[in-house]
Write a structure and sequence with these properties.
Rossmann fold, 5-stranded parallel beta sheet, 44% helix, 2 domains, alpha/beta, 10 strands, globular, 15 helices
Length: 388
């Protein structure tokens, strides 16, 4: 077998890292399969969405954990392309406070993202929506053909998108499933122009392959530095990327690295106090020149106050930012990807960072939780009747 992330399969198996490594490395190839699959079902999906967009008065993007962060990256895209008010609300919030989000006079389109579809809150949130809302539309995007969510049925209109089986990660941390569902959501907002999106996806796959081949060794070196804190900053669609990167490093380090995510502007309003000599700071830059103005200002402001251990930037090829310790380019040429597509590949180096940090700490990336505090599918969550 060929090496994966520059490590031999036998070594990966021994270190409990094979599944995570393979699932990170395969992503650009899965994106191609997702594009082909969505093209094949575009007609039926378009018919469902056309009816929904003409009927609903709000869109809710939902999921639990990493699946919830997909919505953070896509709220702007759905609003821009549909004109319908869109919110990213985790299923954990929907289940705990359903009347804060569902109303008997409102008709939502609920777009559910789920790797396994077996988290207790996944179906419970949709049942609450059906019981409270006057009418609902459900679009379910999942990676597990045999999950509870894949078999769920509503009395209201629904449509299901099942992603390629490779997206159903075997490792604890979500990687292929995250980018696969994120790309699917981004393409859905452009379903009216799906044929033209093929070129964008080809560029995306090129970027992804470049990031994985060019920066694997560098990120392995950075992961070996003795940082105990990490901060991830991103704006707009990249705020979702920053949030996911935060969780990925915290999960795969078994909680030994404490992480925070924020927007560039938001970080200046107090959270900047977290920076010390043991902190890794990662800037996930936009390819929007207007947004980049604010992001550059934040980087300059970081020269004042406590100095971080290392500042790393993930930057589009056409961007320029103040001097940093390390800069990773998402491409060789300024081939413009829209922001919510660029964020699909921008997470790859941060997955690598988390993976190699896990190894450097002597943990098993496939199952880094030594005491079993976190599991691949959340367990032990009771679902109570609403009138309890």
């Amino acid at each position: 077998m060929q090496s994966v992330l520059e490590l031999e399969p036998s070594a990966l198996q021994e270190k409990g890292a094979f599944h995570t490594a393979r699932e990170i490395a395969q992503q650009p190839y899965i994106w191609e399969k997702i594009m082909n699959g969505l093209t094949g079902e575009a007609s039926a999906l378009s018919a469902f969405l056309e009816e929904a967009y003409h009927t609903v008065d709000n869109i809710i993007l939902t999921g639990a954990g990493t699946s919830a962060f997909i919505g953070l990256s896509l709220t702007g895209s759905f609003f821009r392309h549909t004109g319908v008010i869109t919110r990213a609300i985790p299923t954990t919030d929907l289940v705990a406070h359903p009347h804060d989000y569902f109303h008997s006079d409102r008709i939502p389109l609920i777009i559910s993202f789920a790797r396994s579809g077996n988290s207790p809150e996944s179906c419970a949130a949709l049942e609450l929506a059906d019981n409270i809302s006057r009418r609902c539309y459900h679009l379910i995007i999942t990676c597990n053909h045999s999950g509870q969510l894949a078999g769920w049925q509503s009395q209201h209109p629904q449509h299901m998108i099942l992603l390629p089986p490779e997206c159903n990660d075997k490792s604890l941390a979500m990687t292929s499933s995250y980018t696969g569902m994120l790309l699917t959501g981004a393409l859905i907002t452009r379903l009216h122009n799906i044929a033209a999106m093929r070129q964008q996806v080809e560029v995306l796959c090129t970027y992804g392959k470049l990031l994985l081949t060019r920066y694997t060794a560098l990120l392995r070196t950075i992961a070996g530095k003795k940082f105990t804190r990490a901060v991830f900053l991103g704006d707009g669609a990249f705020y979702g990327t920053a949030t996911e990167a935060h969780l990925k490093l915290q999960e795969l380090s078994g909680g030994k690295v404490i992480c925070k995510s924020d927007s560039f502007l938001g970080f200046r309003h107090g959270p900047k106090a977290i920076i010390d000599e043991n902190t890794l700071v990662v800037y996930i830059f936009s390819n929007n020149s207007y947004v980049l103005n604010y992001e550059k200002d934040l980087v300059i402001s970081m020269k004042q106050g406590n100095k971080a251990l290392l500042e790393m930037g993930i930057l589009p090829a056409n961007g320029e930012v103040p001097e940093l310790d390390t800069v990773l380019l998402t491409g060789d040429q300024p081939l413009l990807l829209e922001e919510d597509l660029l964020c699909v590949c921008s997470i790859l180096p941060l997955q690598l960072l988390a993976f190699f940090t896990s190894l450097s700490l002597g943990l098993q990336p496939d199952n880094p939780s030594v005491n079993g505090a976190i599991t691949r599918v959340v367990e032990g969550v009771a679902i109570y009747p609403l009138n309890a």
